[in-house]
Amino acid sequence: MIIGRVHGTVVSTTKSPKLAGLKLLLVVPIEIESFTEKGAPLCCVDTVGAGDGEVVLCVAGSSARQTAITDGKPVDGSIVAILDHVDYKGTRVFEK
After folding, report:
1. Is 78 helix (H, G, I), strand (E, B) or coil?
2. Strand 85-88 vs strand 91-95: parallel, antiparallel, or unpaired?
3. CA atoms within 13 A on the CB side of 52
4. Is 17 helix (H, G, I), strand (E, B) or coil?
């Protein structure tokens, strides 16, 4: 699983019919120890109604197709939770 922050949307009018109606968001991974953004953005299907700037939990690979919205769809990344807070090594590193 990947913790990241939503920083944009992806819009495509021409796509596989199985992707019709799915909201695509760009998520920048967060490095947990410093809780800073690090790495290239990921394109993920939003399964929970996330919005710009929210900290989310993403899954990739076959796990991305294990939600009711993505079952049987050609996706490799899904947002499966919007995070309220993160505690790491006894310290709260993020709170909504």
Report:
1. strand
2. antiparallel
3. 4
4. helix
Question: In terms of DSSP bridges, do strands 42-46 and 77-82 run parallel, antiparallel, or are they unpaired?
Answer: parallel
**What pLDDT digit, counting tens, does each position of 57-94 carry?**
999 999 999 999 999 999 999 999 999 999 999 999 99
The whole-angstrom separation of Cα 44 and Cα 95 is: 22
Show Cβ contacts of residue 63 under 8 Å, excluding neighbours closer than 6 positions.
78
Whether 42 contacts 25, CB under 8 Å: no
DSSP string across 27-45: EEEEETTTTEE-S--EEEE
- Whether 25 contacts 51, CB under 8 Å: no
The string of pLDDT tens digits covering residues 8-30 is: 999 999 999 999 999 999 999 99
